[in-house]
Design brief:
This protein has 20 helices and 15 strands. The protein is α/β, with parallel strands linked by helices. It has a domain of 245 residues: Rossmann fold (3-Layer(aba) Sandwich). Strands 1-4-5-15-10-11-14 form a seven-stranded mixed beta sheet, with helices on both faces. A four-stranded parallel beta sheet has the order 8-7-6-9, sandwiched between helices. Strands 2-3 form a two-stranded antiparallel sheet. The termini are far apart. The site of pyridoxal-5'-phosphate has 20 residues, from helix 7, helix 14 and helix 18.
Length: 461
């Protein structure tokens, strides 16, 4: 009697947790499985492929070798695994409450990266980047930050391994997010608003327009100049590059094991894309299986309608920054001069996309969708009211598509398993939620003309 009663009330598991010794021992490198080789980055002066030596002023050799590695598995150094243990393995959740609210027949799971001290997936790469720099005798790192997540994460990694960090923070965000700034400083890093008077490039931008609100492209140019002009300093990038995406694959490797614990296999994987790193982190280990013919998945990248590089950009060689200081990379781009309109509240404002993600899109291995911001905040609020976690504005893009797919499944009477990456919490983004709840957050349609003009600046290669 009691037993049957107990079974009736047996809780369906909500969290799937791995012990610390299941922190992955190797990252997954998708270069080993790509259907065609990744087009090489080019020297903007000569148009020739760049070699490791060209990158040496900016990056430590250990990371350059990871950037060009073709090995399927790259070992994670033990001190990095130790630092990962501050928050890894991260939990996998089954979204029972969201499923019930939607009345869907789909089963929804999410990997939650907001448990890191910085509140997002970004420490997954900040920690190994800082460690490799430290090993090679680097004293100081320069970087940019947009929404503030990356600056926070690199500041944290600098504190862990004893490196100085200077953060060029996009002016608009510096003014709007004083608490992100304070957290970066609490971790011991120096932060300035970009464009800043501390670099030649920043001074040139300010001379032309003293009120320039800044952009990721401008901040990257400043951080690159800082690193290139100081012997003790290297540059660190929080997304886009191959080695950054590879570091993030701890997310997908853990998720694969946790899905097996749950006794399920995903049919659809969803991630939001700014530069592509959290999306790659969750999906690349699964895409590897797909590329090797071991499994099949639908993979959906979700971007903001205000910065739609995958859905409305071109697949061409372009600069990673506004000042044209970086190598040329073949990627989906809106043009390195593209500036999203300031009414767009979320992160995900970069003009380009990671080369590996771009190639997968070009090859038809992944799908992409663009979503307007009011819809994403609506999905974020529904998620918070059911699952309890306040998502960062970026993953609300993924959540909106997960909800669409779950409702479609209900209509069609199918029961797909959907897995998405909840790549950060939104505790520093309540200003944007407040605007959404007050009804003052706007949607607009990005005019084709604006994209056409920005694309005029893309080199003819
Ligand atoms: C930085 C960031 C993003 C965008 O960068 P990706 O490289 O595309 O992941 C998305 N979500 C959160 C929470 C971030 O911090």
């Amino acid at each position: 009697m009691v037993r049957r009663e107990e079974r009736k009330h047996a809780m369906k598991p909500t969290k799937f947790l791995l012990p610390e010794d299941r922190i992955p021992k190797a990252w997954y490198n998708i270069n080993a499985d790509l259907p065609v080789p990744l087009p090489p980055p080019l020297n903007p002066g000569t148009g020739q492929p760049i070699g490791p030596a060209d990158l040496a002023p900016l990056f430590p050799m250990g990371l350059i070798l990871q950037e060009v590695s073709q090995e399927r598995e790259v070992e994670i150094p033990e001190p990095v695994r130790e630092a990962y243990s501050m928050y890894r393995p991260s939990p996998l959740f089954r979204a029972h409450r969201l499923e019930a609210a939607l009345g869907t027949t789909a089963r929804i799971y999410y990997k939650y990266e907001g448990v890191s001290p910085a509140g997002s997936h970004k420490p997954n790469t900040a920690i190994p980047q800082a460690w490799v720099n430290k090993q090679e005798g680097v004293k100081r790192l320069a970087t940019e930050t947009g929404a503030g997540q990356w600056g926070t994460s690199l500041a944290l990694a600098g504190a862990i391994f004893g490196l100085e960090v200077k953060v060029y923070m996009v002016r608009a965000s510096y003014d709007q997010k004083p608490y992100r700034r304070a957290l970066i400083e609490t971790y011991g890093a120096e932060v300035v608003a970009s464009p800043s008077p501390t670099t030649n490039y920043g001074r040139s931008v300010l001379a032309a327009d003293p009120k320039n609100p800044g952009s990721l492209g401008i901040a990257i140019s400043e951080a690159v100049e800082d690193a290139a002009t100081r012997d003790d300093t290297k540059y660190a990038l929080g997304s886009v590059l191959n080695h950054v995406l590879m570091h993030q694959t701890v997310i997908g490797i853990e998720a694969m094991e946790q899905m097996a614990m749950a006794g399920d296999k995903p049919d659809i994987l969803v991630g939001c894309t700014g530069g592509g790193s959290n999306f790659a982190g969750l999906t690349f280990p699964f895409i590897g299986q797909k590329l090797r013919g071991e499994a099949d998945y639908r993979i959906i990248a979700v971007e903001p309608a205000a910065a739609p590089s995958l859905t409305r950009g071109v697949y061409r060689y372009d600069f990673g920054d506004t000042g044209q200081m970086t190598p040329l990379v073949k990627m989906h781009t809106l043009g390195h001069d593209f500036l999203p309109d300031p009414i767009h509240a979320g992160g995900l404002r970069y003009h380009g996309m990671a080369a590996q993600v771009s190639l997968l899109k070009d090859q038809g291995i992944i799908e992409a969708r663009a979503v307007h911001q009011k819809r994403t905040f609506e999905a974020g609020v529904q998620f918070a009211r059911t699952e309890g976690i306040l998502p960062a504005p970026e993953p609300t893009h993924a959540i909106s598509v997960v909800i669409d797919e779950a409702l479609k499944a209900k209509e069609e009477g199918t029961s797909p398993v959907i897995l998405f990456n909840l790549c950060g919490h939104g505790h520093f983004d309540l200003g944007a939620y407040e605007r959404y709840l007050q009804g003052t957050l706007e949607d607009y349609d990005l005019p084709q003309e604006k994209i056409r003009v920005a694309l005029e600046g893309v080199p003819n290669l």
